[in-house]
# Entry
Amino acid sequence: MLTTIANLHKHIDEEVKMGVWMYNRRSSGKIQFLQLRDGSGTVQGVLVKNQVDASIWDEAKSLTQESSLYVWGKVRKDDRAPSGFELDVTNIEVIHIAEEYPIAKKEHGVDFLLDHRHLWIRSERQRAILKIRAEIIRSIQSFLDSDGFSLVDPPVLTPSSCEGTTNLFHTKYFDEDAYLTQSGQLYMEAAAMALGRVYSFGPTFRAEKSKTRRHLIEFWMIEPEMAFVDHEGNLEVQEKLVTHVVQSVLANCKLELKVLGRDISKLENIKAPFPRITYDEAVERLQKAGVEFTWGDDFGAPHETLLAEQFDRPVFITEYPTNIKAFYMKPNPNRPEVVLCADMIAPEGYGEIIGGSQRIDDPELLEKRFKEHDLSAQDYAWYLDLRKYGSVPHSGFGLGLERTVAWICGLEHVRETIPFPRMLNRMYP
Ligand code: 4AD
Ligand code: MG
# Structure
């Protein structure tokens, strides 16, 4: 039976067998130190020349970086070792001697690493990021599942847009035109009228010509949608969810955060409630900081960063001008020039991680918006139906997974947050 490195703590002073890759080897003449990994963790194997057969000693010497092998040995507790254990190797069986590995220990440029992304993900740092990504997904789902939400899957091929027509990914659906989904929201609104509280988790696509550290062409979104929940109730779910996610990563990914060198103190602050400022107040804050900004314009990355720096946790910016937001957002009844929406801006310059709003529930206003936004009433007839048959106040939001991973991991760019990034000018591997 094979053991894993993550399970070594259950086998102290016992003999184990594991399937591993060797990522580094040092030798002092009489002792070989094999750095081994199996995906679940890393451990150092120690081979002493006069304690193993000469053939085993020689086979170990022939191991190149990334060679695969079975290893037998006795587990020894060692508090100095990063994993807490070492393996006194008694036997090895080579599975495959790797060719010269392209990702050597020297520094490589980003393009080279992205070209070798299929191998790059084996590195300790990339593994840590992907583990944290998995923990973030797990904690989001466990939070929502235990808060009365049902997972619902919207389609990926869609006949119309959700977030404006400028960055749609066009494709053919036999003889018809189709688009890869930009957001599952409109379908989730239908689902909320059937199941009450729902969320989707899936890939979304935006043909954005933006080459920034926050933009991907293909990214994953979690989109909760709730019947009978208003703007304020929407914000409460968001801040509780994000608090839960950050605290789960802190509790369950200590080693990974350490590998990344993440400043944990910045994450420990992240507890609900989060501050809320209106768009109006945000504009005032920018102007006070000497930035030229006109009411009615949208914030760019530098504006978001400047605003976020004034807080030690994520901040909601609420009630943006109606004109710069999506067609489905409900206007503030006392002030129709702004909508009941909020963007959640992460600290440390990571920008918007959530966009959400209360939705229009009045069929007449929605039809008016179709006209204003040049959307075909026929394409959206089904969406209008949701307002004809038992319309209710409802709200929802979309959390961008990659930007959330980038923030929690403290990464410079979203390209490292997803196993195989799709970016402007890159679709390989
Ligand atoms: O603000 P957005 O466009 O909102 C929507 O799509 C709504 N329909 C969601 C909803 O209410 N159900 O996108 C939501 C989030 C953003 O806050 C951001 O985190 C992420 O998706 N996002 C991107 N992430 C990476 N690359 C891109 N190109 C992104 N565009 C948006
Ligand atoms: Mg947005």
Q: What stands out?
A: The chain has two domains: 5-96, 117-416. Residues 343, 352, 355 surround magnesium ion (ligand 2) (CB under 6 Å).
